[in-house]
Amino acid sequence: MPPALDELVEELREADRQERIELLIDLANDLPPLPDRLSQKKDEEHRVPECQSPVFLFLEREGPRVHLFADVPPEAPTVRGFVCLLVRGLDGASVEDVLSVPNDLIQRSGMAELLGMQRTAGLSGVLYRLKAMVARTEATSEPDQAPER
């Protein structure tokens, strides 16, 4: 895992239940807004259907690195916090680093004990969707492709 993501996951894992909730809310408040160029592209192609909350993921490639952007409504703080964890922990990471993120990230971070099965499945869907998007860019992108700006 990239060091930034590993650090965030470790912080969550070591926190007690109440601290974990507070950390997720802090992360939710830190999710940056979508850039204007992406806010107009919130459509089904970018929505994560596995998640009940409307989560929109965007990915841009810059050589071997990926840049992540997301939109999640403030009314879904745990989902928004998890998505911010991914954005902060993986933005600028290599394709290989993103693809190597363990599928049980939610369990490793201790978030599964805070969430019901349905929400855990939805967050797992966010991670799965992100990894699929990265894999798709790896298969279709030139290594030196610059992001759309």
Question: Short summary of the structure?
Answer:
The chain has 149 residues and is mainly alpha-helical.
Please tell me about this protein's structure.
The protein has 149 residues and is mainly alpha-helical. The chain is 52% helix and 9% strand. It has a two-stranded antiparallel sheet with strand order 1-2. α1 packs antiparallel against α4 (77-90), α2 crosses α4 (77-90) and α4 packs parallel to α7 (117-140). The longest helix has 24 residues, at 117-140. Mean pLDDT is 89; it is low at 143-149.
**Count of folded domains:** 1
Using only C-alpha atoms, the radius of gyration works out to: 15 Å
How much β-strand is present in the residues?
Answer: 5-15%
Total number of beta strands: 2
Essential attributes:
single chain, 149 residues, mainly alpha, Sufe protein. Chain: A, two-stranded antiparallel sheet, 7 helices, disordered C terminus
Helix and strand arrangement:
Elements: H1 3-14, H2 17-30, H3 36-39, E1 56-62, E2 65-71, H4 77-90, H5 95-99, H6 105-109, H7 117-140
Antiparallel strand pairs: 1-2
Helix pairs in contact: 1-4, 2-4, 4-7
